[in-house]
Each structure stands twice: as structure tokens, then as C-alpha cells.
Specification:
By secondary structure, the protein is of the alpha/beta class. It is built from 11 helices and 13 strands. The structure holds alpha-D-ribofuranose. Alpha-D-ribofuranose is lined by residues 14, 16, 18, 43-45, 48, 99, 111, 113, 144, 253-254, 256-257, 293.
Length: 312
Amino acid sequence: MHGEHRYDLLVVGSANADLVIGVERRPRAGETVLGSDLATHPGGKGANQAVAAARLGARTALLARVGDDAHGRLLLDAQRAAGVEVGGVLVGGAPTGVALITVDPSGDNSIVVSPGANARLSPEDVRASAGLLAAARVVSLQLEIPLDTVAETVRAVGPETRVVLNPSPPAPLPDDVLAACDPLVVNEHEARYLLDGHPAGAGDDPGAWAAALLERGPRSVVVTLGAAGALLADGDGPAVHVPGIEVAAVDTTGAGDAFTAALAWRLGVGDGLEAAVRLATRVAAAAVTRAGAQESYPAAGEALPGGARQEP
Ligand code: RIB
């Protein structure tokens, strides 16, 4: 794990332009509501993770696909500004992905994604990036790119490289993908989706979800619980709960991406799972106190919620 890797983290994933409107409440089916002025931000779960990790000081690269358009340039500029290596970002094939996001006064969001160029990031693109994959301590994936591309990535990484997967938005996962995850990072929706048909999925006990998910094959599991923190399990003793950190939430968009990025980075540099989850919880807490996704991420050395004595 600590050999000569050029990158602490390679993110293989999506890049979207986030079109964000603040609303008093999110509309029901068939309803129209008025909202704020439109704001356009760089986003996408993959691009968000890359920016979050680089801001924290991780040597980070991104393998993604954007369109040859203004949104693509916005995304590339944001990656470069954060210090992410963008040699692996492919351009063209379709318009840049777009996410339509509404945020209510509690900070909760609803998101619809048009994948665009993300859907064209292919297994061939992954095979052509073998050098990038070999250069990373940790590869982090999400599911806004084709599942075949995720599966190809998992098959292409060497035994020295750790795989972290946040299956969002959730989809059925092949056994070899599940078996590579260390950890599989899920929120409540994703846990319930993956446990559909399993008795644990019908219950309300995150410890039971984690145990049942571990039975599906991942080496470790982290269940994020929003303001309540996170639960981690690696089959070595009982699941461990890391409490959440109380903050005034402004916008939760991208907080999960910041969590996973911080977690993946710290695992790659040698932290244990519990220590990495504790740091990730504080990074995510910082992210919800500010608007937007990438704009909300804390920088290296910035004081994080939860007390100075736990500074990384
Ligand atoms: O996780 C938040 C992200 O989800 C947003 O930035 C949006 O682009 C969607 O991918």
C-alpha cells in the first residue's frame, strides 16, 4: 500500500454541471413551485470527490469524461484550481453531464442527473488508462458512470491498490465488484436497495444492514447516517458507531462525496478504518455548513467541526 504511488487517490467517476435552485419546499408530482435564481456549480460525484481530496492535501487524479462545451470547461477549471491531475479527463462524445438540483431551507436536496458524457466513459477508456490506475494507492468509484466501466476498473487495479465504492445511484452489483470493495460506502437508501429481499433491509437497524452487506462479499462496509454519523464494520468484531457532529446545515449537496473522498485518502495513507471514518465525518460536517458541493469543501489545515484536538 505504501510503495511508490504517484497518487494517493484516483477517482474514476462522473463530472456534472450542477444547476441549482433554492426552493421553500420541493414540488410534489404535478405541482409547480417558484424558486431562487439559478446557480451553476461544478459537481458530479466523481469530480466532487477529487476536489474534496485534493483540497485536503491528497495527491489526486481524476478519470472522467466531459463534453467539449462550457460546462466541461467549468469542470476542468475547478479540478485544476483544486490541484487535481486532469490528464485522465477525456473530452467529447456527448454534452457534459448535468444535475438538476433543488435545495430546501433545511439544506436537503433532490437531484436528477442527465449523464451525458459520463455515460460514454467506457471500459476501453479504462484499459487505455492503465498507467493511471497503477499509479494510485486507492481508486474510488461511484455509479454515475456505466456499471461495465466500474467493473472493468475493479478488474484492472493491481493487488496493491485499494478499492472504495459508493454505489450511488444504486444498481445491482456483480459479485467481483462487491468483493473488491474495502469499504463499500452506503447511505440508508443504498443499503436498503442492496438488501432488497433480505430481512435486514426491511428493518431499521444500521448494524444489521452492515452485517448483511458484509455477507455479500465486501471486505468492509461503512453506512453513513447523515447527522447521526456513520457505522463501520469489517467482520473483525462488532460494528463501530462514529457519532455525527452537530452543525447548522445549509446545503447537504456533495457532503457524502466529501466523506468518501476523505475516507479513501486517509485509508490510502495508512489510517485504520475507524480513524479514517472519524476524519471523514468531520470533513462532511464542514461541507454541509456551506452552499454548493465543491465550493463547500474544507481546505488542508482549516479547522474542522468537532474540536481542534482531532485535527489530522
Ligand atoms: O453527490 C452530489 C452530486 O450528485 C452533485 O454534485 C450532482 O452532480 C450529483 O452527481
